[in-house]
Amino acid sequence: MNLTLKIWRQHSPDEPGEMVKYHVKGVSPDMSFLEMLDVLNEGLILAGDDPVAFDHDCREGICGMCGMVINGVAHGEQKATTTCQLHMRHFKDGDLKDGDVVTIEPWRAAPFPVIKDLVVDRSAFDRIIQAGGFVSVPAGAAPDAHAVPVPKDDADDAFDAATCIGCGACVAACPNGSASLFTGAKITHLGSLPQGRPERASRAKAMVEQMDLEGFGGCTNTGECTAVCPKGISLDVIARMNADFLKASR
């Protein structure tokens, strides 16, 4: 495939950015989206230009590092897929002149300031998790697997919420720039298990207050967050977060 890429370039947080057009030839349908960007960067480096900066690590859809808005959709239009697992066969083949135009932008949210190009600072998520504090678990040898009975429904809720990789797509997709799906997932994960229940109320209150302090917007249940979440986390975690926060506030 021959593709035309329109990529957001911004050299530093203090400099203005702009969309820059690039042409990439010979893109294999079997390439991942990030491999296609690697090919672009190899050409830019050989030409003496500055390569496009973007976040990546495991490239297996686990770490949550990759994140960019592709054609207006966080992680691209392929459902339940991270950017690193998005493959170029999802884009139709076309001639370079009349071929596909792919627009690539960073996450757009005030709490996620752009560091360079497609890389944003997501340390606000780290501070929200830190605000949740510790979990009361016995120190010493590991207990037997059946020592703490957990109802299956609770275990399922905890595991579903724990799949959150903290990529930030929910914030990028939300018209309010809300981090409620991320925060709700972390609160539900720990609050559903016996080990996390002693701090359930205080944890919810502290994390929601930190989320507001970071400048994230409020949730209006538009559902854009769960639509782009690569792990398909449900809006139920937001309801759980709100319930825990109201209980703690009382």
What does this structure look like?
With about 250 residues, the protein is α+β, with helices and mostly antiparallel strands. Helices cover about 35% and strands about 10% of the residues. The chain has eight helices and seven strands; from the N terminus they run ββαβββββααααααα. The strands form two sheets. Strands 2-1-5-3-4 form a five-stranded mixed sheet. Strand 6 and strand 7 form a beta hairpin. The protein starts with a strand and ends with a helix.
**Mean model confidence by pLDDT:** 92
Q: How many helices in DSSP terms? A: 8
Distance between the termini: 59 Å
Beta content comes to 5-15%
Number of strands: 7
User: Helix- and strand-based class?
Assistant: alpha+beta
Order of SSEs: EEHEEEEEHHHHHHH
Q: Looking across the biggest beta sheet, what order are the strands in?
A: 2-1-5-3-4
**Percent helix:** 25-40%
Apparent shape: elongated
How large is the radius of gyration? Answer: 20 Å
Give the SSE map.
Elements: E1 3-9, E2 18-24, H1 33-46, E3 69-70, E4 73-74, E5 101-105, E6 114-116, E7 119-120, H2 123-131, H3 152-162, H4 169-173, H5 180-191, H6 200-214, H7 224-228, H8 236-249
Parallel strand pairs: 1-5
Antiparallel strand pairs: 1-2, 3-4, 3-5, 6-7
Helix pairs in contact: 2-6, 3-5, 5-6, 5-8, 6-8
